[in-house]
User: Fold this.
Amino acid sequence: MADNNKINVMLTINKMIIGGAEQQFLELVKGLDKTHFKPIVVTLQPGGDLEPEIKSLPGVEYICLNRKGKYNFVTLFTMLRLLRKKNVEIIQPFLTPATFFTLVPAVMNRTPVKIVTERGNSRAKPGFGYRIYLGIEDFFTRFADCVIPNSESGKKYLIKRGIDPAHIRVIYNGINTQRLAPDPEKAKRIRADMKLPPGGFIVGISASLTPNKDHITFLQATKLISQADPRIRFGILGDGPLAPALRDLAGELGIESKVSFLGNQTEVGSYLAAFDVICLCSAEPEGCSNAILEAMALGKPVIATDIGGNSELVRDNETGFLIPTRNPERLAGAVVTCVQQPERIREMGRRGRDLVVNRFSLRRMVQDYEKLFEDILQSKKTRSLSKRKQMT
Assistant:
């Protein structure tokens, strides 16, 4: 046990930008019992929209390593010194390369408990430097005490990578419904700003503007939907490197007047509340999608691609619709069905909200992690004590 009989837990991540993994990281840090655990948050780089919040949390120590350059391996030794100085008993990194820069020093340091998180289940087309980190991470993951995917699909992916199933434990994401609480008046203003005509309907997508989220299919479907019902409007919530290209595509498709690019928003609940149905068009496997859970938590039906862990969240024809990837026709058809069957989609929304409350609560997620920390640490201490007794 560390100072004040608290367990020192170091949680590391690349940077506190707005993203699904970063939001789950933040919620875990916030939720940990500070009378029993002392969270030490370490970021490789400064900045990000979520950084001020995590720096202001009571009972949490925040450290930024200010890593410079893609191949700055001095960070390994900085992390090693930090593990020793802070008497860290448990490490849990999120995302590459934070996993590399935490797990390798932790193995060298013989840190008692080493937990690796797998936030998705796809590593499509990584760059050369990224592949180096991933390869080394996979090797050192053999020395981890536990690997945590956030879906059964992620577990299967880990097994395919050669991870021992006995070391894998699924912990689904948890949703902070208080953070999502919408402002009804703001939601109304958002709908008005999108120039919604009488009897109109808004289809939204909440995802980073990156290739794997496949906004191209969303925009292609938008054109088909508009031809079927010109009263429908479309909201794209999120930002990313593809923003300029997607705006250009909307213009090329002749739908720019019906599509609103809303950017990143911290008050995401009000924007989701403004949508009538929410889509996720991912072309690469998801783990446990925050976007899906947030939509369902607000009672919104979801249309999602049937890939990765999406089918573990969306129950086809019960809480939404599952469709094939890269299929704008099927997406358009599902949206039109939603428009034509309002009572059915309201019932889907109710079922989805009940599912999130019962199975994907934030408190459940935090408790699962707390129990995991304590169980592994206690097991390690028991084995260590047994060895010492055998030697005397």
About this structure: The first strand starts at residue 7 and ends at 13.
